[in-house]
Amino acid sequence: MRFVLFSSILCLLLALPASLLAQSNATQAQQPPKPKNATRVAPREKPGFPIQVVHEDTDHLGIELAYNMRDAFNRSSLFNLTDGRSKKIKLIVKTREEFADRPYMSSVYTLIWTFSYGEDVLANYLETETGFVDSLSVDSLAKILVAKSHDVASEYAYLFEED
Question: Where does the record locate the signal sequence feature (predicted)?
């Protein structure tokens, strides 16, 4: 009886390190090997012109126009939509309802492109555009204005160069 108990305990003690070793090898196989001279790579900023869209008006079509422009800038590889304090093109969008009694019919918009060196520096005027937008043309107008923004940014690209 003692012999059976002793041999059972001995088998358990011998089998335990082997199972721990097998588990350790399995977890090591799941982890990829780490290179010896690994360097951490900083995440790259999205390429393109940094741009910020500022719109604070409350008319429906103006809000939709500004939203569609932000969405197009965000999807575009030509722009980097930012709110940062670095150099950027600041696009100020001002909109008003064309007729107060028909708020969803059309709006008047003015876009002002400025170049900002930072929040503490006065921005430089670049370009302006004024027009009308209606509910049928808001999507296509947003794309046209994004293309115009690229033209303005390309014309003043030298402002982004480091001294």
Answer: 1-22
Count each helix (H run) and each strand (E run) in the chain, helices first: 3, 5
The candidate with the shortest Cα–Cα distance to 73, out of 50, 57, 92, is: 50
Q: What is the pLDDT along the chain (163 residues), one digit of tens a residue?
A: 666 555 666 555 555 555 555 565 555 556 666 666 655 655 556 688 999 999 999 899 999 999 999 999 999 999 999 987 889 999 999 999 998 888 788 999 999 999 999 888 899 999 999 999 999 999 999 999 999 999 999 999 999 887 6
CA dihedral 74, 80, 85, 91 (to 10 degrees): -70
Please name the helix (run of DSSP H) or strand (run of DSSP E) that holds residue 62, with its range, or none. Answer: helix 60-75
pTM of the model as a whole: 0.70
Contact 145, 111 (CB under 8 A): yes
Q: Which domains does the chain have, with CATH numbers?
A: 49-160 (3.40.50.10610)
CA distance linking residue 84 with residue 22, whole number of Å: 52
Please name the residues in contact with 127: beta carbons below 8 A apart, sequence gap of 6 or more. 112, 113, 152
Residues in the chain: 163
